[in-house]
Sequence to fold (219 residues):
Amino acid sequence: MSSGAVPLIERKKNGGELAPDEIRALLAGYLDRSIPDYQVASWLMAVCWRGMTEGETLAMTQAMVDTGATLEWTGLDRPTVDKHSTGGVGDKTSLVLVPLMAEAGAAFVKMSGRGLGHTGGTLDKLEAIAGFRTELGLEEMSAQVRRIGCALVGQSPALVPADGALYSLRDVTATVDSVPLIASSIMSKKLAGGAGTIVLDVKWGSGAFMTTQEAAREL
Fold:
């Protein structure tokens, strides 16, 4: 679909709207490498400049979820919870909150990311601990949650692979600070995790991605 991506890039560059099937095709093409990263990077930059409609953001979120599996927690004797912090300098919320919630009786499955922008990711911090593994298969992750009540992992080919691929590309193409891209990235991971309750921690300030309260409220 390499040549077919050009009209989608151009339409978004000119402020147009993409249909759900077109967004799905773009993501599928990036994952199977029929669409090169430079074309996806161009589309991401067009989104940064032109934004997305609510319908496009919803379609992109669901399309990313559908590129992988969705976790099911049937029969688990704990309430399932998840959270996302939008990040910032010194943000270590997950490192403390995940084990605390497990100890309190919840099942906490947290999918986190690597370096994004200037703050570094939760996984980067965790992998500084010798022997800490963040790449777990679905069966291993499920067994760990049922055994100890929590898992803190990264994206994998099985869970939201489209987000993992876009996450890395956004980090090196100056397309991090786009509200629809941030929202679809966050919520695709949350939905794939299958939690019954989700808390969003949206930070703002000089050390965060959202530098103003207005931008944080928009997100």
About this structure: The chain has ten helices and four strands. The chain has two domains: 2-65, 80-218.
